[in-house]
Amino acid sequence: MEIIDFKATKRTLKGNGPARRLRMQGQTPAVVYGAKMAPEMLAVNTLALSKALKAGAVGQTLYHLSIENDEKQKRTVMIKELQADPVSRTLLHVDFYEVDMTKKLLVNVPVVPVGDCKGVELGGVLQVIRRELEILCYPSDIPESIEVDITNLDVGESIHVEDIPLAGDIEIPADVNFTVITVLIPKVAEEEEETEGEEGAVEGEEGAAEEASAESEE
Question: Which strands make up the sheet holding 146-149, listed edge to edge?
């Protein structure tokens, strides 16, 4: 796995005012913490952060974080939380978590179906129930995705979490053998779509009734 180099500087002021000034200067407020270190307030270049985010998925990518004037040259970290404005998508804050390369950690990894599904060719509808799986692995072994072979999956059949082969020293700590992917019979798929449509219509009618009632009370 490639580890991306990333730079940061220390900051001492906290609060909304200093954070806004940082953003106006092209910096994003950040913090780094870990099991063996107290939280440290940082500032990172917003353009560099945006570029790094495009290079790998949040929560899966490892970074070598270099902090200016820090005794420890590089810290191996992951992005634990990323805050952005819901409208403008402006980056507001980023949390880095220092990881121990010798210990396994829990991460969410996307599920990717591969192969030409037998059941779909016979008219079935492929449905991915779980688009992500939580896995337990060493930081250096985090995969970009979990590929699931659906070639022999027939109509009405399913692939459960315990059916998925895993490479290397990767585990899926699931308590229940839940369904990950299934191929629905066309009639069942249509009934599910109709049920969803009816529920939406009922909710719309209830909303309209409540609105009318509120108007009459005013």
Answer: 132-137, 105-114, 146-149
Exposed e or buried b for every residue in 169-191, given b needs 16+ CB within 10 A?
ebebeeeeeeebbbbbeeeebee
Token duo for residue 36: 């063996």
pTM above 0.85, yes or no: no
Q: Could you give the CA distance from residue 64 to residue 56 in angstroms, rounded to a whole number? A: 14
Distance from C-alpha of 105 to C-alpha of 110, rounded to nearest angstrom: 16
Residue 26: count other Cβ atoms within 10 Å of its Cβ.
11
Question: pLDDT tens across 177-199, in order?
Answer: 999 999 998 765 555 666 666 55
Q: What percent of the chain has pLDDT over 70?
A: 84
Task: Decide if 112 contacts 133 (C-beta within 8 A).
Answer: no
